[in-house]
Specification:
- There is one protein chain.
- It is built from seven helices and no strands.
- The protein has one domain.
- It is mainly α.
- The longest helix is centred in the N-terminal third of the chain and has 45 residues.
Length: about 210
Amino acid sequence: MKYKTSLFLLLIFVLNSCQDQNEKRLAENIKEAKKKEIIFNNINKGWSFIDEPINEISEKNVKDWKEWGDFLKELGGKPRKTIGAFQKKSLAIAKKAVALNNNIPAQFNQPNIKSRISILITKVKMMDLFIHLDRIPDEKVTFLIGEINKELVSLQRQMDKIIEKSKIPKEQGEEDFLRMLDTTRAIPNAALAPVPARNIDQNLTKIE
């Protein structure tokens, strides 16, 4: 009888322990779900990119520079419902950003434009990295979205400056001066005609 009583008490203890663990696990799951909901809401609220050209030059590039048009288009279209949708969108944006290094129009294929593209790509990649972490730092993701928008504006303004500068008529003689500075047009030393040495008359009267 004592054996049955002990067994019964042990069974009750095990059942209570299991119930406590289940309740604890359920509470943790609810807490984790609330955290994820907050992260989703913050990212959803901060997910706003400048996906339209800010000037005529940028708008023209949408047609003339396919990679630029594709990138701006990818920035549009806000994901919905799940954080997984934002992760998928972020990866697509990163791929389009990297492609900006391809087929840069000749007039923009210069260091100041390339450096801005490089910075833009770096910040897009950082955003994509953070949003794919197990514990997403939503504040960093939303901060980088703002930084990406700043780089987009900076890049488009620089494009506009280059076009405006190219419209300014050069002063007379500036073209010739620029050609002189171009080392590729310089005459190689080997092409210069050697200067003949003067014959010195050995019979010249020496001055005492």
